[in-house]
Amino acid sequence: MGLRKMGPNKRNLAVGAVMALMTLGLGVAAQAQEMIRRIDNPPPGHPLPEIISGYEFRAPETQALQDDDFDNPGFLWVEQGEELWDEAEGKAGKSCADCHGDPAESMKTAGAEYPKWNEKLGKPINLEARINLCRTENMQAKPWKLESEQMLSMTSFVRTQARGVPVKVQIDGPMKPFFEKGKKLYYTRMGQLDMACANCHEDNYGKRIRSDMLSQGQINGFPTYRLKWQKVGSIHRRFKGCMKQVRAEPFKPGSDEFTALELYVAYRGTGLSVEAPAVRQ
Amino acid sequence: MGVDWKHKTIRACIGLGLGLGMSAMLATGAAAEGLVKYEVVDDGVPQSLTGKPGDAERGRKVIINRKQGNCLACHAISVLASEPFHGEIGPSLDGVAERYSEAQLRLILINAKAVFPDTIMPAFYRNDGFTRVMKKFRGKTILTAQQVEDVLAFLKALK
Fold first, then answer.
1. Which sequence spans correspond to the domains of chain A?
2. How far apart are alpha carbons B129 and A194 in whole angstroms?
3. CATH number of A31-280
């Protein structure tokens, strides 16, 4: 486990303790980095009066699991991702590392910036799609299935490099129509229960729906380890679950609809720190 | 949290095999197949959907059941305190029968949006005008006509 690859947290600090003499400066710097989990003055035009990470709505035990990298079960996937990073695959015989080198450098902000515009495809793509493009085009390897162990591991690993970095997605220029599409989906009532994302995550956050305290439905903690799933899951898996809950036919994971929705939801979390892998009930 | 009285002019007659012409009164204009006919008078539905009295005990089960009424997801009800986890999205239903007549409560159950236009509360006896409904629920209501009457029987005792 390379210290260089980890974001700020206790795992880092514990490893740091072993290497304390050599890396004292780095360890201290990492510890000092603050997670931004609440923004009281969102930018003008933002739909929320305050922007709050899902972390703040969870029980202390769940928060504690997330806080400690050794206890956080999501780190199993981060570690698998770290191994995959160095594995050559495909006809080009390349690994991610061959082109991207030190992930702590090359992937320092990517996890905070997706979905991002892709000029060749003429549309925004999310992190999963970006990684699969590297596999098919740059490695000449097969794309990973969404929700496969490999994809979950790599997205967990890449996003963890951006831990602490404030979410910032582009929404203007060519992104605009996709942003508008995502926004429309967010406010469209769907399913037999006839509810929009906004009915729960904008109108009612901070209130209990049965036993669950509703959050703002932010995605800065994804991929997220869910105790209910007993594994990490993607943003689109969560979207799908929320749609099924209101008895709506979900869009397909990886679809343009979910990517547009992801873009819009990412924008709603502008400025929150990336905190993958989050832990949720 | 009061009733939006401007909706009291709603008059609807939605019926099985009855007046397709009248379906224009539905927001969607789609034929509401399979629904028992009911009439909105002022701000309520005075007639029972089934002509039979509801059963409060069955209504209690529907209210608790997460796949049926699931009312506790959003409402607290003190007499059901033994059930875990009452939600906070809507008002407590304690004393609701003092705030509303039977006819008003029936309309709230059938289609809460007729009374609270932007509400999150689902319409329990409506089967059209929705978007992207999952296949197995398409064309169906959340509750049957009898279940609506059963829930109503339970609510009427909340005084």
1. 1-30, 31-280
2. 9
3. 1.10.760.10
- CATH number, domain of B13, equals 1.10.760.10
Check CB contact under 8 Å for A203 and B120.
yes
| B72, B134, B137, best to mutate vs chain A, most A CBs in 10 Å | B134
As for the ipTM of the complex, it is: 0.85
| Number of domains present in the structure of chain B | 1
Report CB contact under 8 Å: B130, A191. yes
Across the interface, whether the CB atoms of B134 and A200 are under 8 A apart is answered: no
Residue A60 CB-density burial (10 A; 0-12 exposed, 13-18 middle, 19+ buried):
exposed
* pTM beyond 0.95, yes or no: no
| Domain around B140 | 2-156
Could you tell me which residues of chain A have a Cβ less than 8 Å from any Cβ in chain B? 188-195, 199-200, 203-204, 207-211, 214, 243-244, 247-249
Structure tokens, A162: 């951006």
Helix, strand or coil, per DSSP, at residue A117? strand
Q: Strand pairing of A224-226 and A278-280?
A: parallel
Backbone angles phi, psi at B100, to 5 degrees: -135, 150
Among partner residues A203, A210, A248, which is closest to B73 by beta-carbon distance? A210
**Along the 281 residues of chain A, how does pLDDT read in single tens digits?**
333 334 444 444 444 343 433 343 333 333 336 899 999 999 999 999 999 999 999 999 999 999 999 999 999 999 999 999 999 999 999 999 999 999 999 999 999 999 999 999 999 999 999 999 999 999 999 999 999 999 999 999 999 999 999 999 999 999 999 999 999 999 999 999 999 999 999 999 999 999 999 999 999 999 999 999 999 999 999 999 999 999 999 999 999 999 999 999 999 999 999 999 999 99
A242 catalytic? Reply is yes
